[in-house]
Amino acid sequence: MTKKRKTETYQEYRDRVINPISPSFCGAKWYNATIWLNSGTTASCHHPPAHKIPVEEVLRNPKAIHNTSYKKMVRKQMLEGERPKECEYCWKVEDIGPNNVSDRVYKSVIYTEDQLAEASKTHWNDDVNLKTLEIAFDANCNYACSYCNASFSTTWQNDIRKDGAYQNLVSDGARAFQQDGKWAMPYGKKNEGNPYVDAFFKWWKSDLQYTLQELRVTGGEATMSQDFWRLLEWWQSNKDCDVRLAVNSNLGAKPELIDRLARESHAFKEFDLYTSNESFGGHAEYIRDGLVWNTWLDNIHKMMNEGNVRELHMMMTINALCLFSITDFMDEMIKLKERYGQFAPAMSFNILRFPSFQSAVTLPQDIKKRLADNLEYWLHRVGKQHELFFDMEQQGVERLINYLREVQVGHQFTSSIESRERDFKSFYSQYDIRRNKSFAKTFPKDIVDWYESIPMTDLKQLQDIVDGDSTKGNMMKRELEERAKKEGWVLDPQGPNPGSQEYVETN
Question: How distant is the alpha carbon of residue 138 from its chain centre?
């Protein structure tokens, strides 16, 4: 049976195929997984927080790197029509209005109707063979993006270990910047003796290479992982493998690694490339520390011209700061489409929720309204007029416009707006000094005026380090104290929030 009918809208597809199974059903819980092999954690997509894979389950059964006991219980909830709490991202979008299409639709439509029906009839406690899989072998990465953290980037780990934890951050998700990520790399940079990596290769050689439609390797930065190249070496000897390989790359690694990726992409029957960005020029370089705009763009052209790339996907993490140049960025993506085709790139609009102080909902209402108006103007002037800007991308922009206008709280238990605003100021003040950047010189006057008006916490009030993971803050204390005195920062009366969530959404 086919996937979505060509004449069918996504709303019609949802109501015909998915909701009759269950109004909370999502095919990703059965057929898709992201697995961080370095830390032994997994999730069914990039929206829910990852959960730990019990090592005893993996030692008994390699398939347990996907089929965890926890994930099976969530499948049971979905089959019974209950909304799993971890899937709140989709419920938030759907509750805006009945015409809103959430990601559970987009993450189900990639499978055939027969496959979805089979999932619905499978007992919730059974093991299921994956059809799409994203894996990270390790967290080795040359970037330290502002909304990432030490759990996903060794450059972030070096930042925290060298200069200490970020101080006076109290809102939900913010404590991710107060740990050095050592839990994420327990087997070292080379993954020696990692049972999760061993389980993957065992499952890959026995079953996965025959059942998967797509294997996607992420990181960290995939090209910096020796296990990634180990997998590609296997492929060089097994070129009859029908699995589509997709690679997440920031396209900012050493030139020899990008050259090798372009060269080895010709070994695959189908090869897709995923990269990440969501803002233009200097804004992108500020948000994604380590990125050089022109180098990134040049490497896109290198991969498209020299590699064997079937599709290029642009993963956009929609945060508060990217919105000030997002239309310029989309204009640049339209130019790439005109040169290389509709799916080069295909854009996905992923709205950041953690850390909540970097979410778009933290921005003032008047600024959010202006940004929504700008997006709507661009959509009608460019997006809907351009034949290469396809339906899912249009709906992504429309959903973002609605989100900016309608959503005041990003998720359940979001910290107060006062707390998020203070964390916004506190984080970027420290980020500027650590990374030799300038918020005030990078962004437009209206956001800078708001930023400078936020009362700042007294950075002498050190917060407890989460779980003893990080060294005590030892960096820039004198500089920050002088700045606090000069700018009249005040003591934060709220104090730390013990309910802070300690994970971050990344691409």
Answer: 16
Question: Per residue in 360-383, is it b (16+ CB within 10 Å) or e — as a string?
Answer: bbbbeeebbebbbebbbebbeeeb
> What is the identity of the amino acid at 234?
W
Q: In this structure, are residues 336 and 328 in contact, taking their beta carbons and an 8 Å threshold?
A: no
What are the tens digits of pLDDT across the range 120-173?
A: 999 999 999 999 999 999 999 999 999 999 999 999 999 999 999 999 999 888
Q: Residue holding tokens 């894996």?
A: 135
Q: pTM for this one?
A: 0.80
Q: Tokens in use for 381?
A: 């002037």
Give residue-wise pLDDT tens across range 176-213. 999 998 888 888 888 889 999 999 999 999 999 999 99
The strand pair at 41-43 and 51-52 is best described as: antiparallel
For 1, residues 6+ apart whose C-beta sits below 8 A from its C-beta are: 112, 113, 114, 117
Task: Say which residue the tokens 């200069």 belong to.
Answer: 163
Query: Could you tell me the residue ranges of all domains in the chain?
Result: 13-130, 135-406
What is residue 414's DSSP assignment? P
Q: Could you give the CA distance from residue 309 to residue 306 in angstroms, rounded to a whole number?
A: 9
Q: Please name the amino acid found at residue 5.
A: R
Domain 135-406 sits in CATH at 3.20.20
Question: In whole angstroms, what is the distance from residue 55 CA to residue 357 CA?
Answer: 34
CA-CA distances (angstroms) from residue 44 to 264, 314, 341, 419? 29, 20, 30, 31
> For residue 99, what is the enclosing H or E element?
none
